[in-house]
Amino acid sequence: MSMKHASQETPGARAEEETSSELVGQIRKLRWIGMEAEAQPLETRLCRMRVTDVVVGTPQDTD
Predict the structure, then answer these.
(1) Rounded Cα–Cα distance for residues 16 and 35 (Å)
(2) Where are the residues of the annotated region Disordered (predicted)?
């Protein structure tokens, strides 16, 4: 049984991961500046991605 290391991941999988991570970041930024309507289509795109491609963002303590 062989295990894949991070350097052996398929390029497509890595690109999809970056895309979902970028979407989460864009959604947060848009909401932070009060642009909820612009964030909604991005959230819809994120919800339509396969479960294995989704990055779950957690709030960070900013104090």
Answers:
(1) 25
(2) 1-23
With both helix axes pointing from N to C terminus, report the angle between 11-32 and 36-48 in degrees, rounded to the nearest 10. 160
37-to-1, 26, 59 alpha-carbon distances in Å: 48, 13, 21
Mean pLDDT of 49-53: 66
pLDDT in tens, 4-19: 545 455 555 555 555 7
Provide the whole-model pTM: 0.54
Rounded to whole angstroms, how far apart are CA atoms 8 and 13?
11
Note every long-range contact of 41-47, with CB atoms under 8 Å and residues 24 or more positions apart, other chains counting: 46/20
